[in-house]
Amino acid sequence: MSVVRVAAAVLQRADGQVLLAERPVGKPWEGWWEFPGGKIESGETPYHALVRELREELGIEVEKAYPWLLRRFEYPDRSVELHFFIVRGWRHDPHGCEGQQLSWQHPAALTVGPMLPANAPILAALGLPSMYAVSNAVELGEQRFLERLQRALDQGLRLLQLREKHLSLESLERLAEQVLTLAQPYQARVLLNGEPETARALGMAGVHLSSERLMALPERPHDMLCAASCHDAQQLARAQSLALDFAVLSPVLPTLSHPQARVLGWEGFSTLVQGSSLPVYALGGLQKAHMEQAWQHGAHGIAMMRGAWD
């Protein structure tokens, strides 16, 4: 079966809504909804196909587009390879140049449908924020950390990894209860760096696996978010084969925690995440000001420990 290569665009507004298009009458899967885009022609790069297709389909000129995910899907009559880009800047207002209906939608609460099957996992990935914070109570002290957490939640933090391996189970339970109490009014999701069973018992939204635990895990838990720390291509491939919700790849830059560790650099990070089917956060020596650079190199966003609480 031949493979059809497609450039697909997630046009994303500042409020998080994304643009969906209905397939017009006369085309296969007419009436189904999808992300705008089209076939990559011979000799085209995915990016150049994206720019051309959005000009032809929506009448817009792309100004800011970032490589994101590569998804493969088997339809009954063809195999499709979808090169997704997040598009955050464009000129002109999108309109259906081919008579297709358009609709701005929030990924977590669609009011149109049905969506083409290949796009379903993309909606879940779009529910992940650009910033993933890692707790640092061991350095800050618990009270100071909780104060910083409250401030970060007020400023928009919605995804947190509770990583406090120095604590006894009793102390972890006490801290987890306080963290969840703070996070709940904001609908922020908290993942435990540890075992799925412990995360489940503590009422966490998910679990974050160490790279060692990732490589030993036979199957991911399906009743919670599941993420993992990765440091090389083999670990990243394992995270994809288990269909985790996302991965964190590090270290991108030198860190205080592991000053002697070999860093990936932005080019090394980009090489590893190219073609990933999972959202990948960049981690290691990063600050909030690195977000644009992370997007440019294929990251879903950035993960930070010290930088999240400064």
Task: List its traits.
27% strand, TIM Barrel, 15 strands, 2 domains, globular, 11 helices, 310 residues, Nucleoside Triphosphate Pyrophosphohydrolase
What's this entry about, in short?
By secondary structure, the protein is α/β, with parallel strands linked by helices. The chain is built from 11 helices and 15 strands.
Task: Describe this protein's structure.
The protein is of the alpha/beta class and 310 residues long. The chain folds into 2 domains: 124 residues, Nucleoside Triphosphate Pyrophosphohydrolase; 179 residues, Alpha-Beta Barrel (TIM Barrel). It is 30% helix and 27% strand. It is built from 11 helices and 15 strands. The strands form 3 sheets. An 8-stranded parallel β-barrel has the order 8-9-10-11-12-13-14-15. A 4-stranded mixed beta sheet has the order 4-1-6-5, covered by helices on one side. Helix 4 runs parallel beside helix 5. The longest helix has 15 residues. The radius of gyration is 20 Å and the shape is globular. The mean pLDDT is 94.
Question: What does the secondary structure layout of this molecule look like, with pairings?
Answer:
Blueprint: E1 3-11, E2 18-22, E3 33-34, E4 37-39, H1 46-58, E5 61-74, E6 79-91, E7 102-105, H2 120-126, E8 131-134, H3 137-140, H4 142-154, E9 159-162, H5 169-183, E10 189-193, H6 196-201, E11 206-209, H7 211-216, E12 225-230, H8 233-241, E13 246-249, H9 265-273, E14 280-283, H10 291-296, E15 301-304, H11 306-309
Parallel strand pairs: 1-6, 8-9, 8-15, 9-10, 10-11, 11-12, 12-13, 13-14, 14-15
Antiparallel strand pairs: 1-4, 2-3, 2-7, 5-6
